[in-house]
Every structure is written in structure tokens, then in C-alpha cells.
Amino acid sequence: DEMRLQERFDARIDAGDFIEAKDWMPEHYRKTLLRQISQHAHSEIVGMLPEGNWITRAPTLKRKAILLAKVQDEGGHGLYLYAAAETLGSSRDQMLDALHTGKAKYSSIFNYPTLTWADIGTIGWLVDGAAIMNQVPICRCSYAPYARAMIRICREESFHQRQGYGSLLTMMQHGTPEQKAMVQDAVDRWWWPSIMMFGPPDDQSPNSAQSMRWGIKRVSNDELRQKFVDAAVEQAKVLGVTLPDPELKWNDERQAHDFGAIDWSEFWRVIGGDGPCNRERLGARVKAWEDGAWVREAALAHAGKHQTMKEA
Ligand code: ACO
Predict the structure, then answer these.
(1) How many CB atoms lie within 10 A of CB 22?
(2) Rounded Cα–Cα distance for residues 75 and 86 (Å)
(3) Ligand 1, closest atom to CA 128?
């Protein structure tokens, strides 16, 4: 009965077991995973837009090929994640409908504009860097289909981070003064939104306690944010850029960097639908869905024709 199943499930979680799609799971565990994985998938798909914006304007053939590969990887990540979410009993149509009607969230970070070429390198360095920091622990998520998808995603994400950092290094070491200023400007604009990506502070994160208990999240929002800030400070030094936070400094006692207050009102505004590019991003996804209707209809008609032929 339900109680026994629940006890067995809790014991498996406590023992560090992985849960598979066909195993019994509490309804709240299933819903929490479906929410997180589908939102993660949406983030990958919407995340293609800010960078896709620069494919036709990449400065060299090499940079264009790298950017194309990266944006394609993101499409692939979205597809593995939708497939992982489907194992929890939701259809892709339902998930996409939730995105298109504004019911499902996607990462706050993709609601900011990409104004210059330096934004592309900065997204690789900071945004993909933050994504890896958050996603490596998910490779050990208690839900096995999600954990397995994350392994490949993290490998590709590392390449994305390195290409971004490499591109910025080229501009900082060999660029004109204007190009260097462009990098600094991009870092100034992306820094705070990047550290918001980890989500609200632990004491204001409604899902954290339960998700940590279930091993869906292995490391808390604030802990990951701290690790990211500590790593970024060193990388910024090598690059020769300044992080736009006058309160950022090493704290010997904590063996970590202190940093200034995050503007959480901006974060809540952006995830509430009112960021600089929310309407544009959602509009682009809805348009792509509507423009693709004829392809879906044609594929269904084709499948239907074959079915009729088989039956005849
Ligand atoms: N952008 C948008 N929404 C966010 C963000 C963010 N950066 N951070 C938190 N939220 C939302 C949560 O989804 C939650 O809303 P919901 O209950 O309506 O779903 C609410 O804010 C409160 O946050 P938490 O209670 O902390 O939520 P949660 O435990 O899900 O933690 C986190 C949020 C850390 C983003 C988690 O869901 C996660 O690790 N997701 C997987 C990674 C991911 O989605 N990355 C996407 C960006 S990276 C990329 O795609 C390249």
C-alpha cells in the first residue's frame, strides 16, 4: 500500500539509490522533477535566441562555425531534457503549451539582450560558466533519466564555456582599445544577471528544502553562487577585466569572496515576465511554433496515409 511504498522510496533516497522512470515515486517528487526538467529544457531552447542573433554577424568564419555548433548543441540539450521530462508522464505538446502560454518559466538570463559581439564571449564565460556550476551536481540527481542526460550536457557546456573565455581572451590580448572596452561593457551588463541565475537566496527559495531532501538538488543556490563568484574573480584577473561590484573582496575568515547585495527586485521582475526581452523571446518561440504547424500537419497526414495503406 501507499505508506509502504513511500517508506521504501524514502529509504532508497536515503541510501543514495537512483530512481528510474518505472519505479514508484511520490506525486510531489514527480511534479517537482517535471517542473524543473521542463523549465530547464525551455531554458535551452529559449537560450538559442540571444546567441542566434549573432550567427550572421560573427567576425570570422571560425567564430561563426563555433557559434553555430554551440547553438545547435543547445537545441540538442533541450531535446534530451524534453525526453527526460516525458518519462514523468507529460507530453511534449503539454510542456510547449505551458511555455507558450507563459505558465512555465525559463531561465531569467535569456531575457537580456545581446548588444555587441563581446556579449557572445561573455555569455560563454559567465552564463555557461554559471550553468556548469549549477549542472555538474545534477549529474548525481536522484532521478536517473535526468542525471544521465546531464552528463553529456555538462561536457558540451564545458566546451561552450571555454570557447567564450577564449574569444574574450583574444579580444583582451590582441584587440583594439575599442574592442577591450566592448568586453568590459559586456561584463558590466552580464555580471549581476549571471549571479542571479542560481535562483533566490536559500532562505527565500520555496523549493530548496524538499528538493535537497530528495536529492534532486545536491548543492544549494547560495553555495553554488559563492563557488561561481570565487572562480570568476580569478578568471577576471587573467582576462584583465573588472567585475562591476565595488564590494567584491576576499574574506580570509570565510575563505571566500564577499560580494555586494543582489537586486532581487530585478530578478523577480524578470521571472515575472517583465524583463528587457521577455516579450520578444516568447514571441519568437510562439511564432516558430505557429510557422511550423504545416510541417506537423504534413507529417501526421503522411503517417495517416501509411496507416491506411497498411490496413488496406
Ligand atoms: N530563472 C527563472 N526562474 C528561476 C530562476 C532563474 N534563474 N531561479 C529560480 N527560479 C524560479 C524557480 O523555478 C521557482 O519557480 P517555480 O516554483 O514557479 O518553478 C522560483 O524561482 C523559486 O526558486 P527555487 O525555489 O530556488 O526553485 P528551484 O528549487 O527549482 O531552483 C534552479 C531553481 C536552481 C534554477 C533549479 O531549478 C535548477 O537547478 N534547474 C536546473 C538548471 C536550469 O534550469 N538551468 C537553466 C539555465 S542554464 C542553461 O540553460 C544554459
Answers:
(1) 7
(2) 17
(3) 51
Ligand 1 centroid, distance to 199 Cα (angstroms): 6
Q: Does ipTM come in above 0.90?
A: yes
- Ligand 1: residue whose CA is nearest its atom 19: 35
pLDDT band at 310 (very low <50, low <70, confident <90, very high): confident
Beta strands in 167-297 (DSSP E): 249-251, 256-258
Q: Is the CB of 208 under 6 A from ligand 1?
A: yes
Atom of ligand 1 nearest to the CA of 40: 44
How does the average pLDDT of the chain come out, rounded?
A: 97
Q: Which of 31, 40, 109 to mutate to test the pocket of ligand 1 (most atoms within 8 A of CB)?
A: 40
This prediction's pTM? 0.96
Assess whether pLDDT exceeds 90 at residue 1: no
CB of 44 closer than 6 A to ligand 1?
A: yes
Quote the CA–CA distance of 195 and 226 in Å, as a whole number: 9
Mean pLDDT over 59-68 rounds to 97
Q: Residue 256 phi/psi, 5° resolution? A: -160, 165
